[in-house]
Amino acid sequence: MAFLPFYISRHKQLKIVIIGGGYAGIAALVTFLRYMPDADITIIDPRSHHLKITHLHETFRYPLQDYLIPFPALERRFGCRHIHAALIPEEETLRQWQNDKFLVVNDEVLEFDYILITSGSALAQMDKTENIFDLYDFMTTPGSSLLDSRLDGLENGRQFISVIGGGATGIQFLFEIAHFLRRRKIEAGLRLIHGVDRVLNQFPAGFSTYAQALMSDLNIDFYPNTYYRGQETDSIFLEENETGRKFNLPSAMSLLFLGKKSETIFLANAFGQTMVEHKPLQNIFTAGDCSVYQSFGSDTLTAQSAVRKGKLVARNILRHSGSFKLLEPYLHRDLGYVISLGPADAVGWLALEGNVVGGMPAMMIKELVEAQYDLLLTGIDTYLI
């Protein structure tokens, strides 16, 4: 058992319920077991597996199964328990749980010492027809299979695939699709629709310059300052942001990457304790995309922030259960961010947001970050803070 500063156990086997088995939930699980190996941990999640969602764009090259870790495998590996259910509690429910120290799931009463809510965030959605797809579709069907099934059913001749959304997810899918089409020698055009004037606009301008130059090299059509208004049969409907001009273009399919939206947000204090009516619930913590902390730490909707929050609240739950109850504030700042631009290229920043790197250095950073999380999934924690 590793040593945790400011934590003196009362030699009690804690009963901990983690709601959500994403990045924050798994990071918390591993951290709990690092410092309290005999903790009784239950994960509640509606899926049958932990999904490495940040890798879905790579299913144009690798099997989807490579990014699915079945919860039964995690149960065997970590000695935890998984309950297949969905829980998104409201404030009144949280107060009741805090008072009762139990919750009911699938008609089963679960007593707990602490609850950690890591239910994540939802994906923005629009009405879909048979030739409109979004990230949810890639969670169940590999990218290669999805494109093959759609393009095989179309008439011969040059077809167009439209990607809507030039944020990190949309860009990563865009470049994977471009290289997939080249490998398969598929005669299909590719275009990107984005609502502002440059891609990756939430990042430093160097990201946009680098990515858009590669788009030009790959003959990807770019429609900036353009809104998506729908897709029907073999046409996509668009509207120019500045002029309001509406027009349509040939399009065999539209792939929507409209970003995340947080339908249920849990406000937390600087230590990760859930706040209800401006008061912290002592035994209910939150982490991941569903949480907003009252602290100086990063609240970005990224796997990096989710992992850091999950690890922090696990440490704080253990400290809260101990003798001192001296908790650690969330002060983590993002150390960098890398965006994949196909199988052999990437762009990102390291240490300082203005320190933009591309090509092989960015690829190496990406591989190191992914290897670090893969080790965490085996129970080996290499995160320094």
Automatic annotation (TrEMBL):
| Annotated FAD/NAD(P)-binding domain residues | 15-306
Q: Which cofactor does it need?
A: FAD
Keyword Membrane assigned: yes
Keywords in UniProt for this one?
FAD, Flavoprotein, Membrane, Oxidoreductase, Transmembrane, Transmembrane helix
Top-rank taxon of the source lineage equals Bacteria
InterPro entries in the record, alphabetically? Answer: FAD/NAD-bd_sf, FAD/NAD-binding_dom, NADH-Q_oxidoreductase
Q: What sections of the protein cross the membrane?
A: 16-36
Q: Which family does it belong to?
A: Belongs to the NADH dehydrogenase family.
This chain belongs to the protein called: NADH dehydrogenase
Upper taxonomic classification of the species? Bacteria, Pseudomonadati, Pseudomonadota, Betaproteobacteria, Nitrosomonadales
